[in-house]
Amino acid sequence: MKKIFLTSYLLLACFAFCAGQTVDANDADDREIRENPVIEENGEEEAYSFAMPSYIKLNRNHVIMNGANWKQLHKAMANVNKHPVSIVHIGDSHLQADIATGVVRKNIQMEHGNAGRGLITPLKMSGTNQPLDYTFASTMSWNAAKLMKWPWNNTMGFTGTSISPTQRQSHLTLSTGKDEDYNPFSAVTLFHKGKLNVTRVENQDGIPLMFTASPSQDYTHIQLTEAVDNVKIFFDSAGDLTLFGASLSGNRPGIFYHTIGNNGATYGTYNRIGNVGKGIAPLNPDLVIISLGTNEAFGRRNVPEFISAMDRLVKSIQSANPNTQIMLVTPMECQKSVYSTVNKRVKRKKRKSRTVKQKVRSYAVNANILPIRNAIMQYGRDNNIAVYDWYEVAGGAGASSLWLKDKMFGSDRVHHTHKGYNIQGELLYKALSEALNNN
Description:
- The chain has helices at about 1-20, 25-35, 70-80, 95, 100-110, 265-275, 275-280, 305-320, 370-380, 390-395, 400-405, 420-435; strands at about 85-90, 120, 135, 140-145, 160-165, 170-175, 185-195, 195-200, 210-215, 220-230, 230-235, 240-250, 255-260, 285-290, 325-330, 335-350, 350-365, 385-390.
- It has about 450 residues and is α+β, with helices and mostly antiparallel strands.
- The protein has a five-stranded parallel β-sheet, with helices on both faces. A five-stranded antiparallel β-sheet has the order 2-12-7-10-9, with no helix packed on it.
- α5 runs parallel beside α12.
- It is globular, with a radius of gyration of 23 Å.
């Protein structure tokens, strides 16, 4: 057992060093829950099924503008009934399951129109959890890589996922749900590196669909002649093809709310990709929201390195998307594992009992969260970048215990339950809607 723990710790320490982050032994056990979370259900899955807790600071539920000039974004919103407005939200495991962000997407599209499902990624094909409202699948053989399993055996894409076909001729099935979130699409943009030649597109019944395919350097745009909710795309490829995701569009005005979420992600791991700003450029983002910082708090605190990594990702996005506004989101208080050693009396057959030392696991507030939150707040003020202070809105210091008591935090003390994510999504939607509509 000691050997297994030591090996895990060394691997974590090596990875953290490569990401510009140091770690201590107490954080090693928390890595598994951050990279492979289980989102717990609690019977209160919809935001309307419960009252807002009193410790939620509704008076703080606003975007802090910090002098950011959103004039162009407000102009785009004024014309959203004519031209789509694109929002890209980048984050970690709090986004990967797309529960809170799914609430934001649903509400903001109900208010301003649904331009399409937007970005979907091959998370399940990469061996991790995937949102439930779309399918990204294939019966063919693929090599896969994901953000936190470094070094990567494929070129890593801006989505934090990468799949590469093992055969020159292959296919993909992409679909959206048919329930109340029905999302028909008439255009598909495949994001990839390497040559891809689309040869055929079928609907779910195997009937060929009329299409045109327009290749570009970083993507291939497929235009259909009818709206569908399921397509099977056949293509030929060269040996260097890697696919990163797809965007599904209805070719209609409204809001795109694209989500990029990867379990365990940090500013540093996104920076390792090297092309996030350029990668998201074809999504034509009017606003990029970045929700990171939780995972950085599970290492030895190094605020200057955190600020440097944050600045690098922000600059990458701004450089490739000069007309894009950015909004940063602070992490709320969470808890971490703490170990203590206790003496335990052990009884033995036919021998005297003896005292042994035993490690006992408990939890405590992660003291690194607050300095991370403060650094994001200061960076926003210094660089005229808008900030949504989720730390304060969620209840500030002491919030993690209150959320845990109300079953809004899961047993891992890091991730919310469905109830918690639904309430987070409702709050973020209200603050974001206010900021977008405030001319």
